[in-house]
Write a structure and sequence with these properties.
alpha/beta
Length: about 400
């Protein structure tokens, strides 16, 4: 079967897209991926990891209109023409939409009424409420998270199948929209076996932090991710663990505030802001990690979505300290792979770090449990069985 995946972003940068495509290809399907290029110089057609990639030019100005996808029709009109060309020229038989942002464009372009799967990467309407551009003066005038929520419900009903990240997201969607559970498939953002079995290490990085006790954070650094909790804890932790180092691999527009906070707490020498790094560098950082951190603030989105980082930590046996938002609490408690604390509670977080620092038997247990969970229950080969079953 020819499955046409629709992604309104450049590729390859999205591990969820790669993981799903890899699973479907291994099951005998042909996957064609519609994606974008913001540069006028690009490779239109190529095969990446057995995925037939088809790139279409999109100016950055046009892409900015995607934030207004459910306010004004400009983005839908422009993208639907490109998508229609993709569907026809590649003889697509089924459509797989990656996230709600481009859903209206796909439904408009689907002139042959091909079966559609809507893949909701996250609870976009809820998380939009925290976006900096949405909360700006102009954003408040032009962007309505409520309209996005209405669109999500509309296209969830119209789609033949829906894919979500967690069982909590499935329950929330069924309750809110009244959908049948049989229509929804859960596909977590886990890791492929190759992520933790086939990689190269940066030994200079390993040597650089060899003598540190490393707290590692991977991913987006926006305010809602809770990184300020860790920075505030370092003022105390540095007195108990002189060799402590908090390594932040990722970036966002909130980085300036985080760096200023580290200076005001006089802990800038105990933090390394590494910035955005390619995924193929993560294994080197995970190799030096003593504790993996996911201090998410509590909201509807975080309660129903797994952060990619928790599976990346687990694949390398990193004990974790995570805030007890619903989705990641479920993983931590079910597989016994780390400690939980209340979001934003600096004292509680600090206690958990000290506890793991002083308890080698506990960290060893979390290490073994993590690797076992990924190997036997949570790697992409295993969790992808349901999405393969859905297409079959």
């Amino acid at each position: 079967m020819r499955i046409g995946m629709i992604l309104d972003a450049p590729y390859p940068i999205d591990p969820r897209v790669s993981n799903e495509a890899s699973a479907l290809i291994s099951a005998g399907h042909d996957v064609y991926l519609f994606c974008l290029s913001y540069s006028k110089k690009f490779i239109e057609k190529e095969v990446v990891n057995s995925i037939n990639v088809r790139r279409y030019y999109c100016s950055r100005l046009t892409y900015k209109f995607s934030a207004l996808a459910y306010t004004f029709p400009f983005y839908k009109m422009i993208m639907s023409r490109k998508i229609n060309n993709f569907l026809i020229s590649n003889n697509i038989e089924k459509i797989h939409i990656h996230d709600i942002q481009i859903a209206s464009s796909v439904f408009k372009a689907n002139l042959k009424s091909l079966p559609i799967t809507l893949d909701l990467h996250e609870n976009r309407p809820e998380i939009m409420r925290f976006y900096k551009h949405v909360n700006s003066f102009i954003g408040k005038l032009l962007i309505s998270p409520q309209k996005w929520k209405i669109a999500e419900e509309k296209y969830s009903k119209a789609a033949n199948n829906i894919v979500v990240v967690t069982n909590a997201a499935k329950i929330e969607l069924c309750k809110r929209i009244g959908l049948s559970k049989n229509k929804i498939t859960v596909f977590p953002n886990t890791v492929r076996k190759s992520f933790y079995t086939d990689f190269d290490l940066d030994h200079s990085l390993i040597d650089k932090y060899r003598n540190n006790f490393v707290l590692l954070y991977l991913g987006n650094t926006s305010k809602r991710r809770g990184i300020s909790t860790v920075i505030n804890s370092l003022k105390f932790l540095k007195t108990k663990i002189p060799e402590i180092k908090f390594i932040v691999v990722g970036s966002s527009s909130y980085d300036k505030e985080l760096k200023n906070l580290s200076k005001s707490n006089d802990v800038q020498n105990f933090i390394s802001f590494e910035g955005w790094k390619h995924e193929n560098t993560f294994q080197s950082y995970l190799s030096i990690c003593d504790i993996g951190i996911s201090p998410l603030e509590s909201n509807i989105h975080h309660d129903t979505t797994y952060a990619n980082k928790i599976f990346q930590y687990m694949s390398f046996g990193c004990p974790m300290i995570c805030s007890n938002v619903v989705a990641q609490k479920e993983i931590i408690e079910k597989y016994k792979v780390g400690e939980l604390f209340s979001p934003g509670n600096v004292d509680e977080f600090s206690e958990k770090v000290i506890s793991l620092y002083n308890d080698a038997s506990k960290t060893n247990s979390y290490n073994l449990n993590s690797k076992n969970a990924i190997k036997n229950y949570l790697n992409n080969d295993i969790v992808s069985k349901e999405i393969i079953k859905m297409y079959d």
